[in-house]
Amino acid sequence: MKSDSPYVSKLYGRKKSRSLNTYSQYILKNLFPKYKFEDESVIAIDDNIEFEIGFGYGEHLLWQAINNKNKMFIGAEPFISGAVNLIKEINQKQIKNIRISTDDAINILDTMADCYLSSIYILFPDPWPKRRHHKRRLINPNNVDKFHRVLKKNGKIIIASDHKGYIHSILLDFLYDNRFDWICEKSSDFTEKPFPSTQSKYEKKAIKNNQNPVYFTFKKISL
Ligand SMILES: C[S@@+](CC[C@H](N)C(=O)[O-])C[C@H]1O[C@@H](n2cnc3c(N)ncnc32)[C@H](O)[C@@H]1O
Known about the structure:
Blueprint: H1 22-35, E1 49-53, H2 59-67, E2 72-76, H3 80-92, E3 98-101, H4 105-111, E4 117-123, H5 141-150, E5 151-161, H6 164-176, E6 180-182, H7 188-191, H8 201-208, E7 214-220
Parallel strand pairs: 1-2, 1-4, 2-3, 4-5
Antiparallel strand pairs: 5-7, 6-7
Helix pairs in contact: 1-3
The chain binds S-adenosylmethionine.
């Protein structure tokens, strides 16, 4: 990150649950190592590696992995109860194409090679609505540059949000960075989810509250 940047690389938000029950502790100690993301453990199937940033309880990542066995998925979620939930699910269902990290996704991006990913998903990132907290937002010009570096040419970043102010700033950041195309030919391209999947916890909440989520697909068009 540039030293004069207003954007902070620190991780904000929920991390650890106050107390993890014995079963969750068991999962972290004994099962997590089996599914932990380490660069060399990810074998690109058909050259497709997709990364979900902030997967919450992992509903979307699990659905994608089950329905796209020809792809490898990486998920990052520092919220431990969410990660534990996904580890439990992938172990029970014997899912082979997900790797998980509980680190800050931005640090993980920094360890990835150029043009490593075919897609990135960021679904309902924390909106940090107060003006003084905007610099904490995950989607900001610095991170858009990082997303660009790790995506393959024609790779896509798919973002969902139900927060008006954040939606505006996401769109501005990607349009300003003219190395992405906004894939949007008709209004349903951003009012309807661009991929079939189950609903995540936050997506359900947004729809229940009539918050009208918006879905963006940006395609990397130049190296
Ligand atoms: C509002 S929740 C949405 C969770 C999930 N995507 C969903 O739709 O239900 C945002 C999530 O992003 C995670 N998050 C925030 N900053 C992150 C970062 N730098 N790296 C990885 N995850 C992050 C948070 O821990 C939180 O679980």
